[in-house]
Design brief:
Structural class: mainly alpha
Shape: elongated
Oligomer: single chain
Strand content: under 5%
Largest sheet: none
Order of helices and strands: HHHHHH
Number of strands: 0
Distance between the termini: 82 Å
Number of helices: 6
Length: about 160
């Protein structure tokens, strides 16, 4: 809605009817650089918006994963642990398909334990898609499934000779 002076009611910066406002200054009239340094010291994107919590964990320093940040790795290299786990899972599925109902789940359980070891010991930016949830939830899920598959492999009858 336009006032009698030509400014819009809903625009706090006082932009005119053409939508052009003073883009070099923030809402309080200060420089745009003042927006990049928040009073709480939290991480901010270049436009001044706060960095999402999922991205803040990858940052080095106190806002990151306990202040421990490893060296930056290329994206393809961070997917190597994931591909190793997926290869081991595929091998276990092939063994199960070949009617080895004791060996296949044991191989799959080994792949899940390998994923748990990667999740436990490697930094978050080195494990790629193995980091799905919080570390303790991922570890609990992977180890729990591995234990269940080991029990399954132990009690399953061997049908092939």
């Amino acid at each position: 809605m336009a006032d009698t002076d030509g400014t819009r009611d809903d625009d706090p910066r006082g932009a005119g009817p053409d939508g052009a406002g003073d883009s070099a200054e923030g809402p309080e009239g200060g420089a745009a650089d003042a927006v990049d340094t928040p009073p709480d010291g939290g991480p901010r994107e270049p436009g001044g918006a706060p960095v999402p919590a999922a991205d803040a964990e990858a940052l080095p320093g106190p806002a990151g994963d306990g202040g421990q940040a490893g060296p930056a790795v290329p994206y393809w290299l961070s997917q190597v642990p994931y591909m190793l786990v997926m290869s081991a899972l595929a091998a276990g599925i092939v063994v199960v398909a070949a009617a080895y109902f004791k060996r296949g789940p044991a191989i799959i359980a080994g792949a899940l334990l390998l994923a748990a070891a990667f999740r436990l010991f490697l930094p978050k930016d080195w494990i790629g898609m193995l980091a799905v949830r919080r570390r303790w939830i991922d570890l609990l899920t992977l180890v729990g499934l591995a234990v269940l598959l080991i029990v399954l492999a132990w009690v399953a009858p061997q049908l092939s000779s």
